[in-house]
Write a sequence for this structure.
């Protein structure tokens, strides 16, 4: 009944939900311990639409379009509160049934635990706020839209002097008794019975009795439950012409209700070693809400308190739900009118204490911050947007932010530089494992994500960064050096008095020195005369010293000496590529072409079958021959070492310049 008030409908309709929900779920559900009923967050989300569309004379201030304070206005609609709630419930049922037919029961997996906890914790703040005015006995307008909770508390503090002392005292007594019962009496009571002390039931009975005897409603101006009809409501189809205005609200409620139901069901299933079917749960919840909406009910979901009581009492199947339905049927048929004098502040106190479990979730924050800053951010953003904006906005913003973190992490994955563990064929990340070392002239890189359009450019830039070689810049430098050398040769040929011509079609510099003088360092690459405006940074080389080992040097190909003594092989470990799209293939081809132009061979290793198939289908082997693909990193390293040894041997025989880095 308390959650019915939270949903902005009369309390008796909460009894209808608690009767029809478990009865239908018994036939279609897969969880053995979940008890279908009302849930605070779902009721609160429903209340926003009910207050906006119902014809009941409830004052509501809408501040979505304006953050300025406006005077409360009476919003009259075509339908009553329960008609609006039932209509939205039927639309929610259709959404859930449609998603079950489309096998979208796994949709809730995209709502992370941190998002769900942050959302439910933020929603609990709204639930608590909605009960504060009942605890204090204040008659204040309802606010909707952005920052509605801020305006609600402003209004509460403005009217704090109007607090109904009787309502406050009764609420505090109920809260104290409930807390003491849960903290101290429940464990002792379980020694004699498998259920906790039914303090909520005792408070409802005692509150109703005292209110009837002492006439609390008239004497102390307390708001009471009011008339409760006996029997069950007749079936009727809810109005559907308001669906256009509530479709977004209904979809959000459908997702949240199912997520809560499935999460609670998975907890019990894991604890008792059985499985539940997510699609069947979606279907069962859709049928439950469809039936409930036709009997003047509102949205059903897993009832946290009832489910915990059932599980704690040792229930094994949904037969327990049938027993509880039988008791509720007896109450509806015979005992309903006895609760007409129950003060609403008693129900408010029960709801406030029931929120304790949600508020305890704040304890997770320090641990979550230490373990994962990203998950902590999801929790905080979802909570803050839910509390300060609105429940519906909070869910959307939380999902959006969660997806952004996924996109960011896939777009900017870890790039590991691999090194070899000495005397083994094991290669590990040099930033994590010690002692490992990099091999000379070889760079081993592992991109720890799939390669696709969103991160292909990042992949290429990271290769440039970790290899310390930017092929395009290096190529431009070579072209400029060649141009400088060509101009220098033309000048030296013109000034023949300063140089000797060694052949009829070439001319080169010769350094001569007397035998008793030390050899002065020369600049065979022409770098001393190189334009100072040329940026040599980012090429991956520090030009420390250039030493001429012979008096004659062939400088026809000086740019090759820039890389001959450094990086020769780039080995890309593709073991983390679960898939590669066309953009990824094109990026790989571009990288290979660029590095080939500066005499650096790119080798791919550990490609999965689907990756190799994609390379084959896209014509990638026209760019890279299949002999550049190796099964393991070690195979590629052995190939690179053998090729490097041959290259260095040939280089020593032909080269006249040694460049030290």
């Amino acid at each position: 009944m308390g959650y019915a008030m939270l949903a902005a409908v009369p309390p008796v309709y909460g009894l209808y939900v608690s009767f029809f929900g478990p009865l239908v779920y018994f036939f279609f559900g897969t969880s053995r311990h979940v008890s279908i009923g009302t849930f605070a967050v779902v009721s609160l989300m429903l209340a926003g639409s009910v207050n906006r569309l119902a014809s009941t004379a409830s004052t509501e201030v809408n501040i979505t379009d304006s953050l300025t304070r406006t005077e409360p206005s009476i919003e009259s609609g075509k339908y009553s509160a329960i008609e609006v709630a039932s209509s939205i419930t039927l639309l929610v049922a259709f959404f859930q049934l449609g998603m079950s037919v489309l096998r979208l029961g796994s949709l809730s997996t995209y709502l992370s635990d941190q998002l769900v906890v942050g959302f439910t914790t933020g929603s609990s703040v709204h639930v608590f706020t909605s009960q504060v005015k009942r605890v204090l006995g204040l008659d204040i307008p309802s606010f909707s839209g952005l920052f509605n909770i801020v305006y609600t508390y402003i209004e509460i503090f403005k009217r704090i002097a109007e607090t109904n002392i009787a309502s406050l005292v009764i609420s505090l007594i109920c809260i104290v008794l409930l807390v003491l019962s849960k903290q101290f009496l429940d464990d002792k009571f379980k020694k004699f019975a498998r259920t906790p002390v039914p303090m909520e039931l005792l408070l409802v009975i005692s509150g109703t009795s005292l209110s009837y005897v002492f006439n609390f409603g008239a004497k102390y101006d307390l708001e009471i439950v009011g008339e409760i009809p006996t029997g069950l409501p007749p079936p009727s189809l809810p109005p559907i012409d308001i669906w256009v205005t509530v479709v977004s609200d209904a979809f959000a409620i459908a997702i949240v209700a199912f997520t809560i139901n499935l999460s609670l069901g998975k907890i019990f299933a894991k604890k008792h070693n059985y499985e539940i079917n997510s699609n069947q749960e979606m279907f069962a919840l859709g049928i439950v809400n469809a039936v409930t909406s036709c009997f003047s009910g509102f949205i059903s979901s897993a009832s946290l308190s009832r489910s915990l009581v059932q599980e704690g009492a040792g229930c094994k199947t949904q037969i327990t739900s049938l027993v509880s339905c039988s008791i509720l049927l007896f109450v509806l048929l015979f005992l309903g009118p006895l609760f007409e004098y129950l003060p609403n502040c008693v129900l408010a106190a029960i709801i406030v204490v029931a929120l304790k479990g949600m508020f305890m979730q704040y304890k997770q924050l320090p641990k979550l911050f230490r373990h994962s800053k990203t998950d902590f951010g999801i929790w905080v953003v979802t909570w803050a947007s839910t509390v300060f904006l609105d429940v519906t906005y909070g869910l959307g913003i939380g999902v959006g932010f969660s997806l952004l973190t996924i996109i960011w992490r896939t777009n900017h994955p870890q790039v590991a530089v691999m090194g070899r563990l000495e005397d083994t064929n094991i290669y590990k990340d040099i930033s994590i494992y010690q002692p490992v070392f990099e091999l000379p002239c070889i760079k081993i890189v592992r991109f720890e994500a799939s390669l696709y359009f969103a991160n292909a450019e990042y992949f290429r830039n990271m290769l440039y960064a970790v290899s310390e070689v930017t092929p395009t810049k290096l190529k431009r430098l070579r072209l400029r050096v060649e141009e400088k050398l060509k101009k220098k040769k033309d000048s030296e040929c013109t000034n023949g008095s300063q140089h000797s011509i060694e052949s009829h079609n070439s001319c080169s510099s010769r350094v001569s020195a007397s035998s008793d003088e030390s050899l002065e360092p020369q600049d065979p690459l022409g770098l001393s005369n190189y334009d100072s405006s040329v940026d040599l940074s980012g090429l991956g080389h520090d030009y420390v010293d250039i030493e001429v080992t012979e008096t004659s040097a062939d400088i026809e190909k000086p740019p090759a000496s820039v890389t001959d003594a450094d990086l020769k092989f780039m080995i890309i470990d593709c073991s983390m590529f679960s898939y590669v799209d066309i953009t990824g293939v094109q990026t790989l081809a571009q990288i290979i072409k660029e590095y080939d132009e500066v005499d650096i061979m790119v080798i791919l290793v550990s490609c999965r079958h689907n990756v190799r198939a994609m390379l084959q289908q896209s014509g990638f082997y026209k760019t890279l021959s299949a002999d550049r693909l190796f099964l393991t990193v070690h195979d590629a390293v052995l190939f690179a070492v053998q090729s490097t040894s041959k290259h260095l041997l040939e280089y020593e025989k032909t080269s006249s310049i040694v460049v030290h880095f």
About this structure: The CA atoms of residues 386 and 654 lie 73 Å apart.
